[in-house]
Write a structure and sequence with these properties.
58% helix, mainly alpha, 97 residues
Amino acid sequence: MGFKGINGQMFFNILYNTAQSVVRTPDLDLEIKAAIKEPGSISEAAKSISRFKAFVESLSRFVEDRKTAPRRGSIPFFVSYFWQIKNSTKWPIYYNP
């Protein structure tokens, strides 16, 4: 599957395009860097996902057509993909069932 699917690269592209359209690319940069930093615990992972989810939702409010908004359901895959690169035994990629 890899990163190039709907929850990886496509999700990133939608996030970037949405952030760019509302002049929030610097915020996107900071939020992605914070979200993909390897958490120290499950509790930190949950907080990281929640924070990133809040940011994604803040961007989504500016999208008129809901079908083109960044999907919250992509967030666990997106962040865990980067966590597993840093520590694959501790952080497997989360795949939506």
